TrEMBL record, chains A, B:
Pfam families on file: HTH_5
InterPro entries: ArsR-like_HTH, HTH_ArsR_DNA-bd_dom, HTH_MetalResp_TranReg, WH-like_DNA-bd_sf, WH_DNA-bd_sf
Origin species: Exiguobacterium aestuarii
Stated name of the protein: ArsR/SmtB family transcription factor
SMART domains the record matches: HTH_ARSR
PANTHER family: TRANSCRIPTIONAL REGULATOR, ARSR FAMILY, TRANSCRIPTIONAL REPRESSOR SDPR
Taxonomic lineage from the root: Bacteria, Bacillati, Bacillota, Bacilli, Bacillales
Alphabetic keyword roster: DNA-binding, Transcription, Transcription regulation
Amino acid sequence: MEERLASLFHALADPNRLRMIELLRKQEWTVGMMANQLGISQPQTSKHLRILYDAGLVTVTIDANRRRYALKSQALKPLDAWRTYMARETERLDRLETFLAESQREENGS
Amino acid sequence: MEERLASLFHALADPNRLRMIELLRKQEWTVGMMANQLGISQPQTSKHLRILYDAGLVTVTIDANRRRYALKSQALKPLDAWRTYMARETERLDRLETFLAESQREENGS
DNA sequence: TTCGAATATTCCCAATTAGGAATATTCCGA
DNA sequence: TCGGAATATTCCTAATTGGGAATATTCGAA
């Protein structure tokens, strides 16, 4: 159902977690590296990573003393699928919005 | 910053609100109609719509005794922009994931 | 074996909110 | 003008969680 998608959105619904995912976009990161880069505490970094992990958004590789976190970018695919699904029926609405916006602009005589 | 995007994700991070948005995809809905369709209470429907409204995802038209809610589909555009931004650098990772998945499949001798 | 670095977990507090119940508000029709 | 329909808001409770502080755990190096 929509539960899965809602969980995914929930995991993304935090500025720090978004920044984390954007960092992970290019390379793997260690907890300490991320905490330092983001300017947040190590425990908070671990907690946010835990939430991303539970949401299936990252993978973790245990490497001796440290953990390397990597983005599991395929986990974002449901988001794209939903947007495609949504866009299919909103095109008509989009055109209406554009039309109304342009009418408004003409009214204002801009 | 990422605050805006996080707020958007937050508004979408609820199964009932996702169902609401999917209903609004095709047409306007009245609070009572939505509550009835979704099988949730009227107050809860109003509260969820309020959250969607605060997130800029819906517009409301007061029509005598009732309010007609409509999707403001342009509000979902930042989501697409973020995906595009993310995809730009994750392509390499995607190819790696695909490669690893296929290697795994071969190992299993499927 | 001991120490320190890296990380996860727990405890605490404050804020948010989903959901139910009750109530307030607005407006139309009789 | 009054009653009922439609909607929003408030009060309550339980659950979640972000963030800080402290602590537990694990592991490599000396």
